[in-house]
Specification:
The complex is a heterodimer of chains A (about 280) and B (about 350).
Chain A (H helix, E strand, L loop, with lengths): L1 H27 L7 H19 L3 H22 L9 H23 L15 E4 L2 E4 H23 L1 H11 L1 H6 L4 H27 L5 H4 L1 H11 L5 H20 L6 H13 L11
Antiparallel strand pairs in A: 1-2
Helix pairs in contact in A: 1-5, 1-8, 1-10, 1-11, 2-3, 2-4, 2-8, 3-8, 5-6, 6-8, 10-11
Chain B lengths: L9 H15 L4 H12 L8 H23 L8 H16 L5 H23 L4 H21 L1 H4 L24 H23 L1 H11 L1 H6 L4 H27 L9 H14 L5 H20 L4 H15 L1 H15 L11
Helix pairs in contact in B: 3-8, 3-11, 3-12, 3-13, 4-5, 4-6, 4-11, 5-11, 8-11, 9-11, 12-13, 13-14
Classes of the chains: A mainly alpha (about 280), B mainly alpha (about 350).
Amino acid sequence: MLTILFDGISTGMLLFVLAVGLSVTLGLMNFVNLAHGAFAMLGGYVTVIAMQRFGVPFLATLPLAFLIAAVVGVILERTLYVRLYGRPHLDQVLFSIGLVFMAIAAASWAMGSSPQNIRLPEELKGRFDVFGVGIGRYRLFLTVVCGVLAVALQLVLSETRFGSRLRAAVDDARVARGLGIDVQTVFALTFAVGSGLAGLGGALGAEILGLDPGFPVKYMIFFLIVVTVGGSSSIVGPFLAALMLGIADVGGKYFVPEIGSFVIYALMIAVLIVRPNGLFARPGR
Amino acid sequence: MTMPLLPTSRADAVASAKAFLGAQSRVRPLEIAFWLLAFAALFVGRSHHLLLAEITILALFAVSLDLILGYAGIVSLGHAAFFGLGAYAAGILAQSGHGDPLSGLVVAAGVAAVAGFVSSFLVLRGADLTRLMITLGVASLLYEAANKMDWLTGGADGLQGILIGPLLGRFDFDLYGTTAFAYALGVLFVVMLALRVVVHSPFGHALRAIRDNRLRARAVGIPVERRLVAVYTLSAAIAGLAGALSCQTTAFVSLDVLDFHRSAEVLLVLVIGGSGRLYGAIVGAVVFRFAQDVLSAMTPQYWQFWVGLGLVILVLIGRDRLDDLGRAIVARILPARRSPEGTP
């Protein structure tokens, strides 16, 4: 029972890392980016390629996954995304669906359409007991890494100069520009970090969520749920939403496998009907 | 035809409004030519009829999306929900021995309409993003349901053993798809006739007002919620028709009908052809299907890549600019005509 709870929490943490970038682009910058999952997939494939072709150990591939996804993210942001800020949502939807199609086709062309496996290092395999609660080593590792990342992000956002610049740029880009904040660079950096985190999440999650060219579409709705249910006022909302989603998903699949993901979608719709701006939205906005 | 700026009396105002609406809904020669051409295709090129039937069904699906996207301004990422419902309704009906196509069509449209009516209340609330999520969520919900209820839907294997009776009790569905094409084209024709009345009616104009500015629409006395519920239900019913046609002409239904890529595809079709003008959906369906054929002949597995690239380029160029180009071409061919929607 507690094992399931723990598994749910670790899945939720993973979803948070995957989706937190989206909560900035979608939640804060109001850009409907359905292609977020493509960056996660990219990170996953970076890890797979680095491990299989070049024999890089798993842990060393993680920063690589982050970096490459971030670089690709920033290139795309500078060349393409930047033209679509402020355009109608329909345009953004179409544009990012186009990116998703391209990513899926490119991935199956380069890597084949079969699911990829990642061989975890020995020390992360297996599980151990703590007071009768079975804890997977890898899940523990996930929880710790993602937890640290979440805290770090919160600190960066609330305590650093960059964080306040970002919040200012999001609240009112024009005034922020007037105050001498380089809004473009702030957005580009944020986008890079968000994509990088997605890449890292994809690499970390390849073991749990699986990795195949359909990844961006398969988990798109999960990422969107985290952001829309969590609201966009801080990263605490998405964090809680991700935890709830993880626990509901793992628990639902364990206790009521016959209805599968049904619960999650139904819950999401219910939440959005009651609170169209998300569960943890800032009041009055 | 010119509308007096200040009608002197109420009767005058009504008359001039009627004249204005009437002028917009006049049948254009291009339209007649199109339908003549389409029905003429029934008698030639038998080997292409299956493809044409498929295009016709895709066009019908895209027309249904056009109603809510082009006219009412609701961006939906889950329109396949209603297509799939229609397909499953028709399929299950046929499987249980009621193979008459037309009554299956009616039932499917009814089922989809009920689902559309119910979910329309969810779509009324919130901003674009919330609507995106709700439409996507409803479609995912149905996909999951169809996947898990395999006693009813056959789950991942699809619905087996669908036997479709002859159309109108006389015409069997043949191998070349001639009956299928005639059937689909007939349905599309009837739906288009009905819809061109709908979109040029005061109801249609109210929808466009809501799309352009919801607040102002409400201020001039349009019951926004009721109009949106009505159009969403209508759109769902037509999508259900398309789904039922797809099921009846192929005698097969699988989970694929509810999949996300179908919702995305129909959005793409509509955008290619241009939204908010009914016939755009048909143009889009033709262009999309032929492009798909050509691309998949070049790169069998990866044609999706080119579709995606096309989409990205389309958006970057700007849909409006493409629209202007299309209008300019039409204007050159038919110099005397005003643009169809009369948008300033």
